[in-house]
Amino acid sequence: MTTLHTRARAATGDALLVTRRRAAQDAALLAGTAVLLLGTLLLTLALPRLMERSADEAVRRTLSDAGTAADVVGLPPYAGPFVSDRVSPVFATADLLDDELGDLVEAPVAALRTPTFEARTPAGAFLTRLETVVESRDRDAEHVRWVAGRAPQLVPAEQQPPGGEGPRTVEAGLSAPAAAEIGLDLAGGPVRITMGRESVSAYVLVTGLYEPLDLASPVWRDAADLLGAMPTDEAASVGLQAGLYVPHAGLADLRDLNPTARLDTSVRARPAADSMTLASARSLGRQVERLAATTGQVAGDLPDVLGAFETRLTAARAQASLVVVGLAATGSLCLVLAAGLLADRRRAALAGERARGASLASVVLRALAESLPVVLAVGGLAWAVVTAVLPAHRGSVSVALAVAAVAVLAPPVLAARTAAGAWTGRRVPADRRVRARLEAGRQVRRVVVEALVVVLAVASVVSVRTRGLVPGAARDVDLLLAAAPVLVAAAASLLVVRVAPAVVRAAGRPAARARGLAAPLAVARAQGAATALTPLLAVTVAVALVVLSGVLAHTTRVGQREAASVHVGADVRLDGRLGPGRGADALGALRAAPGVDAVATGVQLPARPFEKGTGLSVTVLVVDAAELAAVRAAEGLPVDPGLAALAGADSPAGTVPALVTGDLLERAAEHVPVASPQVSLHHDVVRLDVRGPTTMQADRGAPTLDARVALPVESEDDGVAVVDRARLAAAGVTVPDPDRAWVSGPGAVAAVAALDLGPQQRTGITVTSRHGWWSAWAAAPLTASLVALQTAGVGVLALLVVLALTLVVVATARERGRTLSTLRTLGLDAATARAATLGELAPLVVGGLVGGTLIGLAVPWLIADALGLGTVTGLPGPGRVAPTAWPVAVAAAALLVALVVAVGVERSLRRRDRLGEVLRVGDR
């Protein structure tokens, strides 16, 4: 029999029998460890899948919130002004989108429209245009119900002018709500409308009134004037506009109108948001980019919408990775503590095995035979539960596999360490110098390991700060980013272990002079526990991630409110047609409404030439300066020092007071000397009297709810100039009508609601309230799920803190019990025993709380660029960390509860001790 064979038999002999007996003796501890492992695996398996589900919901919400900006736009090829058939290319482009994109989009809608013209009827005049909207997948489908008259039809050839000379006739329908608002009645038969001012180009017969069968149909998405009458621009001679609907059956007459080159065409396909997933959205984006590059017939902002969403998703995943990996790390450390407790309970048995000649390989094998089946069974159960609850989503399993590996390997490693410590076979040298040299070698190895951990922690933080926010794999957590807090906590734990003995010794001097046994005993117990690394690491990591998760959740909430203030700029914001007419009336009513403190209007004029000869351009903001300063001050937004004074400032004749971006004048002076720069405003040239710099930027307009809102405002101009509206008008400059207004005051929301402006499609005015935008943005799936994860992570990590301290108390109960039992024979009371327990836990609790709190507050600031705070909150720019005290209070409360639990556990373990038994048995 070979030596290898003998060793193999010795290592494996009776492994299963011994394992089964030991498992039966420690069934309760093994069951508790299995429950802890099950909970950790459920979290690490379910959370990545929940992140994927939230991503699917978020991409659907993004495409819906983006509106028409997310549409895939077809560009029918233009064959020239003399080509009579402009219809076929439209449907060919629609078929191209349908064939290439398939189920990723809804049915492409082809639209053909004539230019707008004025229709005069017995009921009055209104602006109109002939329109045909057709779904490419079912061109003959009926989208309306005719409620009066009859459906339009093709006009017979004999009723058209012979040879195509002269005005042709087209039959069309009018929506019933528009007819009611205009006053048009078909009781006397079809109504004829003439196209053309000076000469007749065509006749339109309104043969019927209709109602849409489905208002949500995509055919009406870009044709609001076919659903009802809309107010026109203030410059128009008539007040209403309503489209005239030509069904697909009458398209040939619309096509033959002269001149056909003036027929406007469009093709749009809305993404199938209801069935969209993250994977299909990415596929759609790639398809659109490919078609745009290869055919030139596809355009739209969909790639930009999806690109902004991907950036926001990456930021959310980066923050979620911190929680997932933090939970896994803390759970793994608790598993290590449980494995250490198990090895300590079996110390006598392992020492006996080692004394009888058992090899460390046999110890490891028996421990593996116990841990591996448990981990496989628990892992299989966790996988089955997660798959049953979340079957349609897949997530990363790398973190769960790491936890499982710790659960498998920790018991064998700690069992082997315990057995090796019982008898190493090494003799202790008698020479004191040799012993000192060996101890110095151990200290050097320890310093090297600790320095390596510190270097890794610093390198991880530096690496994350350097690279910033980067897209990760489709379903993988950002391990480098998530490992940074854990590595920093490990480095801090090593520092605490180094510093704690000196602190305890310093505390021991006044304790030695104290009366009674409680203080000296507590310090003595603390001195022995000050160097325990694993418990301290578990508590420090848990506390750090409690604080970190709480700070990030608080930062997201605060940042969302700041984003609402930045984007809306007031309690309520109005965008659109605010000139003479309905818009001006609404502004006047708001100024007189109770509870409205200020109403500021403005208009933005981009790409205005700035000082001839410099080649610079500027965005001019024409605002009510004093009112805007009041609105921004009430909103807590920065106010330029000279903004309010623009309205009343004295300036040289022929100039207008203005605030200009700080470096714009310096850049202009590099080309020509500039004293009072000139700015071209359409037909006027204005000379500016610069009163100071401005920090205001180009305004985005009505804020959207998709991820693009967090991107900086794109502007090709070199700066911004702010002028007062009244001063500009007093200088004789034609001032454009305002197209945005900010309303502040406690009654602003109610005042705007009382105006009953109606939907934007009909009034041309978009209403956005700060609270409404914030509520919608905070309720978005991605943001809401991230904040929920971080908040829940605080609670789970707090429970793990309690569990870690409880495991530490139970693991050290035997050794502490021997000391306390001996002291009880000398008159030790229960209060002093509790003081000993608290003293032993003091370095662990205080060190973990202080170190974890500092790490939890510092890490978000250190790696802020890699967390995408601005992208998540909606703030343009990098965002900022908002520290808060409540996570620290939660961590401190968790540690306090853990201390209470620890003292209770200690008391329960010592409850059955009898003084007579201690005197009879002695040390145990």
Automatic annotation (TrEMBL):
The chain crosses the membrane at residues 27-47, 320-342, 363-386, 398-423, 444-462, 482-508, 529-552, 792-813, 841-864, 884-905. GO terms for cellular component: plasma membrane. It is a multi-pass membrane protein. Keywords: Cell membrane, Membrane, Transmembrane, Transmembrane helix. It is found in: Cell membrane. InterPro entries: ABC3_permease_C. Residues 795-903 form the ABC3 transporter permease C-terminal domain. This is ABC transporter permease. It comes from Cellulomonas shaoxiangyii. The lineage of its organism: Bacteria, Bacillati, Actinomycetota, Actinomycetes, Micrococcales.
